[in-house]
Amino acid sequence: xxDKPLMIFDCDGVLIDSEIIYLEEEFRVLTSNGIEVDKAWFxxxxxxxxxxxxxxxxxxxxxxxAGVDLTEDEFEAMKALTRERIAAEIKTVDGVExxxxxxxxxxxxxxxxxxxxxxxxxERTKLAQHFGDGVYSGDMVQNGKPAPDLFLFAAKQMxxxxxxxIVIEDSVNGVRGGKAAGMYTIGFTGGSHxxxxxxxxxxxAGADVILPSHSALLEWLAANTNTLS
Length: 229
Known about the structure:
The chain has 2 domains: 6-17 and 91-224, HAD superfamily/HAD-like (Rossmann fold, 3-Layer(aba) Sandwich); 19-89, DNA polymerase, domain 1. It contains 10 helices and 6 strands; from the N terminus they run E-H-H-H-H-H-E-H-E-H-E-H-E-H-E-H. 47% of the residues lie in helices and 11% in strands. Helix 6 (118-124) links the parallel strand 2 (107-111) and strand 3. Strands 3-2-1-4-5-6 form a 6-stranded parallel beta sheet, with helices on both faces.
């Protein structure tokens, strides 16, 4: 049993049901360039990558498949529209408020979202109160997900250690980062973006257990930790 472990949550797709918005806009740009991709493949390959890596890979995919150089203006227009939609449509993942309210141990956020946007998301959804200053972005480390740097940085800042930290991640790259950090890593499939085969992808990436909802996470925590008392 874990003794008062540090809980490290990804943001998009775990706390906030926003990944589906990102994906819809990214697929729109791909389709406009005549590119169709397998959604499950795209999610596994791209989701949660550090921002510079993600951009290079996305632009590279369009160049490879369509022979088109996506301009900086086109890329920024996609990101701006995505941010507008998230601001207007943002909502939490079902059950997250009850789960966070039940925790009686340290908890923080470790997300690939840039720091200029990450706190705003948590404030808009009224989740910021659960984390205080424990909000960490890939901007803060040299190597973002799937490298372990962000998780190790978050644990150090929170006064925790890898052996007694639990990562909750919805992406293949996030799971790989959590495991590389030496942390117990839960694959979470409660977001709207979790297409068929998502659980299998997370398991193949090394997730120690797969949980489909925050109510299931609460049950798991009750059985395997003392985080609720």
